[in-house]
Amino acid sequence: MSHRCSLAALAFAAGAALAASPASAADIRISCYSDGNECPVQKEMSAEFMKENPDINVIIDEVPYSAILQSLPVQLAAGHGPDIARVTAFGTISQYFLDMRPYLKDADYWDKNFSKTLAWLRPTPQDKGIYGLPTQLTITGAIVNKSLFEQANVPMPGPTVTWDDWAAAVDKVAKATNVPHGMAWDRSGHRFAGPAISYGAKYFNADGTPNVIDDGFKAMGSRFLDWNKNATVDRDVWVSSGGGYRDAFSEFQNGQIVLYYSGSWQVRRLEKQIGDGFDWVVAGDPCGPAACSGMPGGAILVGFKQTKSPEAVAKYLDWFAQPQRYAELMSKTENIPAQQELQTSGAVKYNVTAAGNAAIGAFLTETTRLSPVAYQLQGYKYNFQIFNPTVDRLSQAIAGQITLDQAYARITQDVADALATANQK
After folding, report:
1. Cα Rg, the chain, nearest whole Å
2. Is residue 186 part of a domain?
3. What is the C-alpha to C-alpha distance for residues 311 and 21, in angstroms, rounded to an integer?
4. Which of 128, 187, 312, 396 is the most exposed place for a label (fewest CB within 10 A)?
5. Whether residue 309 is found in the same domain as residue 332
6. Is residue 18 part of a domain?
7. Whether 172 and 263 share a structural domain
8. Cα separations (Å) of 321 from 269, 300, 326?
9. pLDDT along the chain (425 residues), means of 10
10. What is the pTM assigned to this prediction?
């Protein structure tokens, strides 16, 4: 009898311990990649979330960006992906997104403060789902070696001058300082899009269907080809990269270019890797006849339908979305907030150098100059089916393998073929 009571007591104690252990909590597994320090900061803040919510256990797996692009879609299709992932390409996996609206205490807060970026995750304009939390808003722009301008005694162009003005100015600086090239652009169709929109590219017909090649696109295409041919732009970034994305950070860091066209995600890297090497500034986006626009972008933490804990997923993302915590996340990761009130309130304080603080401020200013076309293109479900042919075919034209007119024709056909394939899936 005593033995049976002891067994019963042990069984009760073991059951109580199991109920109280982390294993009994709702587990949330997150696939996270970092541009800078995003995953470590998220882990740090998640520890506080778990203290406040002991019934939810958060597991963050740090993965390379290539895994998000290549492995995550395969995992989701097989039905065993994570509960949440930090993603940048939305259209190819949007069918797996969890609509958090039914689980949020205050969906109106999300609608008011994240309206511009939440639309990127919605499959149609009529959809009202809330599918994820933007962990940053990125903005493209020109980053300039100020020291080279000073050495050349050339005045730096102002905020409303054209790409043509900048091309002339950086050419003059490069020649005066014996720098190989005036500028370099990241090898990216996304990077090309902002300048093209500034020169009038609309990318879409009035009914929202893609129409990539128009007079505005051609206006920037011909300029970009000419700049690559006459060495204003470092052609190796687009031609000698072996295909795929390639940035030009090392060229800028090593003083080989005057102007680097990239974006706000580079600020932390600029501070850490350039340091006191030279003075640099963010000059924003040069203008064209239609706009002075770059391209928005960013990473978003999205939940997935297959999760066994949709309430916990929504609670976790809602915790990070609240103004004080979101401002802390932006401050610690040195990112521009996608929360619209924080973009203008000044509540986000950055522990950065004077150059870094000025750069973030300049990129924040660029959020006010973005063309509606830029938001439309970034939110388009199949924008990579536009970006990839753009960079591939323009690279061929720069290399002299095809003419610019042939590049335009092939971009049109490539986009049509890619969309036909995507719509069959």
Report:
1. 24
2. yes
3. 20
4. 128
5. yes
6. no
7. yes
8. 26, 12, 5
9. 36 34 71 92 98 97 92 94 94 92 97 91 88 94 98 95 98 98 97 98 95 98 98 95 86 98 92 92 96 95 97 98 96 91 86 90 91 93 93 97 98 96 76
10. 0.84
